[in-house]
Predict the structure.
Amino acid sequence: MTTERPSVLQPEMPPTRWGDPAHAAGLPDGVRDLVGLVFPIQDAPALTDVAVPAPRLADDQVSGLRAIVGDDHVVTDDAVRRQRTRGKSTPDLLRQRSGDLGDAPDVVVRPASHDEVVAVLAYAQEQRIAVVPFGGGTAVTGGLVADPAGLTGVLSLDLGRMRGLLALDPVSSTATLEPGLRGPEAEALLAEHGMMLGHFPQSFEYASIGGFAATRSSGQSSAGYGRFDAMVVGLRVATPVGEVRLGSAPANACGPDLRELFLGSEGAFGVITEVTVRVRPLPEAKEYEGWRWSSFADGADAMRALAQSDLLPTVIRLSDENETAINLADPSGIGGEDRADKEGPGCLMIVGYEGAPAAVAAKRAAVTEALTALGGTALGAEPGEAWASGRFHAPYLRDSLLDVGVLVETLETATFWSNRDSLYQRVKAALTEALGDGTMVLCHISHVYPTGCSLYFTVAAPGGDDPLARWLPAKAAACEAIVASGAAITHHHAVGTDHRPYLTAEIGEVGAEVLRAVKRAVDPAGILNPGVLIP
Amino acid sequence: MTTERPSVLQPEMPPTRWGDPAHAAGLPDGVRDLVGLVFPIQDAPALTDVAVPAPRLADDQVSGLRAIVGDDHVVTDDAVRRQRTRGKSTPDLLRQRSGDLGDAPDVVVRPASHDEVVAVLAYAQEQRIAVVPFGGGTAVTGGLVADPAGLTGVLSLDLGRMRGLLALDPVSSTATLEPGLRGPEAEALLAEHGMMLGHFPQSFEYASIGGFAATRSSGQSSAGYGRFDAMVVGLRVATPVGEVRLGSAPANACGPDLRELFLGSEGAFGVITEVTVRVRPLPEAKEYEGWRWSSFADGADAMRALAQSDLLPTVIRLSDENETAINLADPSGIGGEDRADKEGPGCLMIVGYEGAPAAVAAKRAAVTEALTALGGTALGAEPGEAWASGRFHAPYLRDSLLDVGVLVETLETATFWSNRDSLYQRVKAALTEALGDGTMVLCHISHVYPTGCSLYFTVAAPGGDDPLARWLPAKAAACEAIVASGAAITHHHAVGTDHRPYLTAEIGEVGAEVLRAVKRAVDPAGILNPGVLIP
C-alpha cells in the first residue's frame, strides 16, 4: 500500500499548558468556590512570552542540517524552540510559567523519513550535537531534557512529519506506523480500514506512537488490550551505528528478545522510526458502568480475583475513598445516602466492555456474576459514561488549578498484590508528610495483572510562593518510599531524568552496567538523549 | 517458608537416548513392519560405553572447585561426564551413539546455592574455565556444547542440587523456584499447595525451570497459559561481575525490560539461580477433544480466527495432512471413511480446555460455536485423550526409529499469519530436496498468537550409512529457507550453537553487536557457555 496520512492533525500544545489552547478554560465559578474551600486561591501571574536562550550551534552546523532535511525543516525560531522545550510534568509547566526556558533546544529538525533520521544522526554524531527525539511532547518524567555537557548543542528531532500508516496486514492483523502519529491520528487511519489499536493513555490526544514505544506506555484499556509494549511485534530503529529491524514473528526463542531492549529505551539507544503493532477490529459495542465497593481494599481484592481468573473486562479502574469523593463531589452519591451513612463513602470502580456484542454480553455476564459474589454493588451506566466522556480532561483541570495557585501533580508505581496496601500507605504518608497540612492524596488502580497492579497517585496541595520548591522534595520522598517498598519506580511514565537516580535501585549495579554497555555499543559518541534513562 | 524439595526426583537420562531407561523399548513387531514398508530397516550397532577424552583441568583446579562446593560435588568420573555431554538433538544422539564424546566436560560441579554458583563463577573466571550451566540436559540446538578455545577446560555446572520451591505468595499468585527443578518436580511441589505452573513442553519430564527461562521455552498449553517467558515475573542471575535481581512488579516502564534480556540468554550472560513465576490454581476440569478440518490451511485459518478473537482454549494444535495420517495410521479414521474418500484424509486438530468447570464449559461452548461456524467437524474426546496420554512419548519413538536406521529429527520456526503457507511450503521443499527420495515431512502448529503462529516439522528419512552426514545439510537447507522467508530461526528451541550462524540474519548486525556488548559487560573473561548464542 502507499503510505496513508491523517487528514486532521492534532494542534500544537503551548509551552506552558496542556492540550489544545481552544479547550483551555478557567475554573467555572462554582468549582473555583469549591476549590477555595480547601486551598488558598492565589491567581498565578499572567503568562508572558519569555525569551529562549541564544542558540549554541554554529551557523555552519545549522546549514549542515538544512542540507539533509531541507531549509524549511530546520527551525531556529524562538516560538518553535519554546514549543519543543521539556514536556508536560508539573515541574516542566512551573518552570515554563516562571520564564525558565533553560532547556530549550538550539534547533528543531524535522526529518521526513527513516533515511533522513539516519543522516541526521550521522551528522549529529560527527558534530557532537545532542539529539532529543520529539514525538508528542507529553513526557512527564523529564525525558525531553537532555544534558548537553561535552556536546556542542541540543537538536530536537521532531518526528511530526513522520505520520504515516506504512502498511496494514489484514491477515496477520498488524499495522506498521510511523513514530510521529499522535494517538487520534493513528486511530483515525486504522478506522478507515475498520481496525483500531486500542491504546488510550491519558495523554492519548497528543502522545505519539514512537513515544508509546519508547516509554513502554500503558493505556486505560490495558486490561483488555494490553500494554503498548505487548502490542508491538516489530520495530525499526535508527542508531548512530546502523539500523535495527526486529520482529520476524509474534514471539520466538532467538535469544533475548531485543524488541524489549528498544521498547523503553527513551531515545537513548536510537530513534524508533517504524512500529509494527497488533491491531483489532473496531468494537461494535462499548459499555461502561460503575461499581461500588465498601473500601479500596475490597475493590482491589475484586480486581485481583478477576485478573487471577483471567476474567478481565476491557477497562477496569478503582478509585480510593479520597479520589471517589473528589470525583463525585458528593460521596453519598455512590450506593445511596443510607449506605454511605452506614458504611462510609465507599470506592468507585469503572468497568468497561468493548468488542463484538455477543462477546461483550458474555464477558459482562461473567464479570457481573463474579463482582456481585465478591460484594460489589452495580451502579449502572451513568458513572461509566461520565468517566468515558471525561477520560482525557484531567490535564486541562491541572492547568486551571495551577492558575489559581494549587499545586497538582501525579505519580505512579506498580507492585505485586501482596505488597499493594503497604506501598499505598507508604507513598501516601511520604507525600502528606513532605507537603504538610492541606495536602490531598488521591489514588487509583488502573492497570491490573494476575500478579499485581499499578497505583496512580494524584496530589493536590497549596502551591505557596514557590510550588516547584515544594514539589521536588515531595516527589523525592515518594520515590524513596517506592524504592523502600521494593516497588517499581514507574509503571508507565518512564524513567526520563526524574527517575534516573532511582533506576539502579530497580535493576541493580549489573543491570545499570548492562544499559551503559548497550549505550556505548549503539551510541559511542553519547549523542542520544544524554542524561536520560541511563544511570 | 522454608525451602520445599521434591520427594521424587526424575531419573538420569542415558547419554545416547531420551528419558527413563526403564521406559525405553524397541518398536513392537507390528510397528516395525509398518516402518519397514516405508524405510529400509537397518539395525543400528549395539551401543558401547565409549571412553571420554582425558580431562584437561589440572588437579589443583579440581581441588579449587572442591574447596567451594565440597568434595562430593565435584565429579570427574567418566560415567557422569558422559551423562553431561551435549543434549538430546538427533545429531547429539548420533554422535554419542557413534562413540564421539569429544564435547564431554572436564568436570561436573554441583553447587547447592546461589552463593556457591557465584563462588564457582569467580573461580572459573580466575582460572579461565568455560562454564556450561546444566539443568535438564534436554537442549536440542547445541546449547550444551561450549567451545573451550583459549580457556583451560570446560566445567558442567550441574544445577541438580538446586531443586527447591523457595517461596510461594498465594496473594500475588507467584512462586519462586530454583533452576534445577525438572518440570514434574516443580509441578509436584506446587500441587501440594493446590497450584500449578502449567508449562508443558514436550521435554517437560526432564527439562528444568532454569532451562525454560534460559531458552524462552513454550509449552503445549501456551494458548491458555502462555509462553514460559510470559509467566516469569522475577529473576535472580549470578554473573561473573555480580548478581542481578529483576522484577519489582508484573510490568513497568523502568526503561528496557531487562528480564527479557536474561530470558533467552542461554547461559551466556549468567546463571539463572531463581525464577519467580505466575502460578495458578490446579484445574478442576480438563477436557481434550479432536476436530477435523478438510485441509491444513482451513484448520490454520480457524486457529487464526480464534486467536484474533481472543477466544483461545488451553491447548490448540493442528497437524497437517501428513502428520495426521501418520499419527492415526489410518487417515480414514478422521470423520469417517466416506468423508475421507470424498475429501481426502483431512487434518486433525486437538483442542483442550482446563480450568474451573464453569469456565471450561463457557469457553468450550464459545469455541465450539466458532469452530463449527468455520467449517470444523467435532470428533469427540477420543483423539484428544489419545493425544494427552501420549504427549511426552515422541522422543522415545525417535530412539526406537534411530535403532532401526531411520533418521528422525524435528525443527521449528514461527512467522506472521500472512506468511504461514509460504514458509510451510519452502521449509518442506528444502527438507525434501536435501534428503531425497523416501523423505517424510510432517508439520503441526502448536503455538498461536493473534498475529502469527509456530510451525513444527518432524522429518523422517532413510538414515543410510551416515545419518548425521545426511542430516546436517538438510538442517542447513531448512534454516536457509526459514531465513529467506523472513521467519524466526527458532520459536522455542533456542539458538544454541546450531542456530548461531543464522542469528545475525534475525537481529541484524547492530543487534548482534548489542549482544556482544552485553556479553563483554557481564562476562569479561568470556567463560559463560562460550560459542553458544552470541554471534
Remarks:
- Residues 402-484 of chain A form a domain with the GMP Synthetase; Chain A, domain 3 fold (CATH 3.30.300.330).
- The CA atoms of residues 411 and 457 of chain A lie 5 Å apart.
